[in-house]
Amino acid sequence: MQERKRLEDIIKELPEDLRKELEDFARFLWEKRRKKIKEKPKFDWAGALSDFADKFTSVELQHKISDWRIDEK
């Protein structure tokens, strides 16, 4: 039975161009995984519109926010 080669040994046997390609692919996988790991939401925005609570209902406030977004464009 043939012994399995270690990854490092396999990489050492590759020609330089394939090692570069492998490095690029490894970086791609690393970046892809890093993007999936996200921080937990902070919710530091919660309560930011509390000043408007006595002026608007929640539905009116939704419409007002929509208007503000449109005006920004």
| Low-confidence residue ranges | none
Please give the count of helices.
3
Strand percentage, roughly? under 5%
Largest sheet: none
Helix and strand composition category: mainly alpha
The separation of the N and C termini measures 67 Å
Structure description:
The chain is mainly alpha-helical. Helix content is 59%, strand content 0%. The protein has helices at 7-13, 16-36, 58-72. It is rod-shaped.
Top keywords for this entry?
3 helices; single chain; about 70 residues; mainly alpha
SSE layout:
Blueprint: H1 7-13, H2 16-36, H3 58-72
Care to give the gist of this entry?
The protein has 73 residues and is mainly α.
